[in-house]
Design brief:
It is a single chain. The protein has 13 helices and eleven strands. By secondary structure, the protein is α/β, with parallel strands linked by helices. The strands form three sheets. The chain has a seven-stranded mixed beta sheet, sandwiched between helices. Strand 5 and strand 6 form a beta hairpin. The longest helix is centred in the last third of the chain and has 14 residues. The radius of gyration is 21 Å and the shape is elongated.
C-alpha cells in the first residue's frame, strides 16, 4: 500500500482512466497513509471477521484489511471507479466487490449487501461482522444507523465521517448535538472519536473537518433494549419533533395507538414532567420510555 493512496498515484490512475472524483457520490480519498493504517489497526481485525467496506475507492484500505480479515465485502457505487478497485484487489481471493449502492432507501440497507455479509459470516466458524470504511459523507448516517438494525449486527464500526456527525454520535444529554442518532447508538454501544482530521488529508479536500469514529456495540446493552426495532422507531419519532415538549413529541410519535391520557400515564410512571424535552433524556431513560409505551399499547414489556 506504500504508494497506492498517495495524491500523485491517485491522480495518475484517474487521469489514465479518464475519470474524476464524483461529488454526487461523496468521493474524498484519504491520502495520508498513516491515517489509513490507523483505521485498519483501530478495527483490530482477525481471521473470524467479515468486514463490510462501503466505498471501495481505489482499494487502498481493502488491500490493507484483506490479509488480516476472514473476508472483506467491499461496496462501490461508481461504475467507472469499480474496475480500478478490482485491479488493486485482484490478488486477494477473500474479497468480494459489489458494484452497487449500499442502500436501498435512506432507512434501509440494500438486501444484496445484507445477504452477502450474512452468507460470509455464516461461512466462518465464529464469524463476526465489522464495518471498516472511509464512508462517503452522504451515506454515513444511514449506514451507521441501519447496520445496528440487521442480523448479525456488527461487533465494531470504525469509519471516517464528518466531524459534525461524529460529535453528534458521542454528544451528551442537554447538548445541542444530542439527537436520535446519539440515543440510538449510545443506548447499545460504546463510542469514541479516535482522531480529528483536517480537509488536507483527503483528495479532493472536503469543505469540513472529518473524524475517525470507533463504535463498539455491547451485547448486554442491546439486550436491555428488548424490542430493538420498536425502540429505534420510537426514538426517531420523538426526535422528529425535538423542539416540542416531550408530552407533545411523544404523542405525535405514538398516535393513534395511544391517547394523550396514556402518554400522561407513561410520563408520570417515569416521573417526567410534560415540559421535559427529548434531549434531556439519557439513553437508559429512553429505553424505559419505549418499554412503557409498548406495554401500554398491549405489547410485551
Amino acid at each position: 500500500m506504500s504508494e497506492r493512496q498517495t495524491l500523485t498515484y491517485l491522480q495518475e490512475r484517474f487521469a489514465a482512466a479518464g475519470i474524476q472524483p464524483q461529488t454526487r457520490f461523496g468521493q474524498n480519498f484519504l491520502i495520508d497513509l498513516n491515517l489509513v493504517q490507523m483505521i485498519e489497526s483501530t478495527a483490530e481485525l482477525n481471521s473470524r471477521d467479515v468486514v463490510l467496506e462501503v466505498g471501495a475507492g481505489m482499494g487502498s484500505l481493502t488491500t490493507l484489511m484483506a490479509p488480516k480479515a476472514g473476508h472483506v465485502v467491499s461496496v462501490e457505487i461508481d461504475q467507472h471507479l469499480a474496475p480500478l478497485a478490482e485491479q488493486e484487489i485482484a490478488n486477494f481471493d477473500n474479497v468480494t466487490l459489489l458494484r452497487q449502492d449500499a442502500l436501498r432507501t435512506k432507512n434501509s440497507l440494500h438486501p444484496d449487501v445484507i445477504s452477502t455479509v450474512q452468507e460470509k459470516v455464516a461461512s466462518i466458524r465464529g464469524g463476526k461482522l465489522k464495518l471498516v470504511a472511509n464512508l462517503p459523507y452522504n451515506v454515513a448516517t444511514p449506514i451507521l444507523s441501519n447496520l445496528l438494525d440487521i442480523t448479525p449486527y456488527p461487533t465494531r464500526m470504525v469509519a471516517t465521517i464528518q466531524r459534525e456527525l461524529a460529535e453528534r454520535i458521542v454528544a451528551p444529554t442537554h447538548c445541542r448535538d444530542y439527537s436520535a442518532l446519539s440515543v440510538w447508538i449510545q443506548a447499545q454501544c460504546k463510542a469514541r472519536i479516535v482522531r480529528i482530521m483536517p480537509p488536507g488529508v483527503f483528495w479532493p479536500p472536503p469543505k469540513v473537518e472529518s473524524a475517525i469514529i470507533d463504535i463498539q456495540p455491547q451485547a448486554l446493552l442491546r439486550q436491555r433494549i428488548g424490542d430493538v426495532p420498536h425502540f429505534h422507531q420510537l426514538v426517531r419519532g420523538i426526535f422528529l419533533h425535538r423542539r416540542k415538549y416531550l408530552r407533545s413529541a411523544l404523542f405525535s410519535a405514538v398516535k393513534p395507538t395511544l391517547t394523550k391520557a396514556d402518554v400522561d400515564e407513561v410520563l408520570a410512571e417515569l416521573d417526567l414532567q410534560a415540559s421535559t424535552r427529548a434531549e434531556e433524556l439519557a439513553p437508559q431513560q429512553m429505553i424505559r420510555l419505549a418499554k412503557l409505551v409498548k406495554a401500554k399499547s398491549g405489547g410485551d414489556d
